[in-house]
Amino acid sequence: MKFRVDDEVIVIAGADKGHRGKILKVDRDKDKVVVEGAARVWKHVRQSQKNPQGGRLNKEMPMSASNVMLVDPSTGKPTRIGVRYLEDGSKERFAKASGESLGQIAPAKASKAAS
Questions:
Q1: How far apart, in Å, are the Cα atoms of 49 and each of 42, 44, 46, 55, 57?
Q2: Where is this region: Disordered?
């Protein structure tokens, strides 16, 4: 999965289709993301010492990563994410629609000849 926390995404499927928000959490094992303001549910909380008031909490639930697309920073439209190697050997993410860089993933690897 190529999503990162704080990426701006748009929901492309489901009840919140069209909603824009930042990614708050990424679960790579389950292939799910939590998007700010999307997939909100009421969680009923029982009274306890930790929560003496009890009541209902409105919280975001995880959604499948396939239901969101990254928003291209230059155009503001949904785009796919690609990975490319730079000349110095480091990897970066880029928006496929515009080719704009989305930040470095990994630094250049050290040469194996040195070992």
A1: 21, 16, 10, 13, 17
A2: 45-77, 96-115
Beta bridge partners of 68: 11
Residues belonging to the chain: 115
CA distance 89 to 92: 10
Q: Which domains does the chain have, with CATH numbers?
A: 1-47+56-71 (2.30.30.30), 73-115 (no CATH)
Helix (H, G, I), strand (E, B), or coil: what is residue 113? Answer: helix
Q: Which residues contact 92 (CB under 8 A, 6 or more apart)?
A: 83, 84, 86, 101, 102, 103, 104, 105
Q: How far is CA 94 from CA 14, 36, 48, 81, 85, in A?
A: 26, 23, 47, 6, 10
Predicted confidence at residue 113, as pLDDT, reads: 46
Residues in the chain predicted with pLDDT less than 70, given as ranges, are: 111-115
* Cβ partners under 8 Å of residue 31, min gap 6: 1, 64, 65, 66
32 neighbors 38 (Cβ within 8 angstroms): no
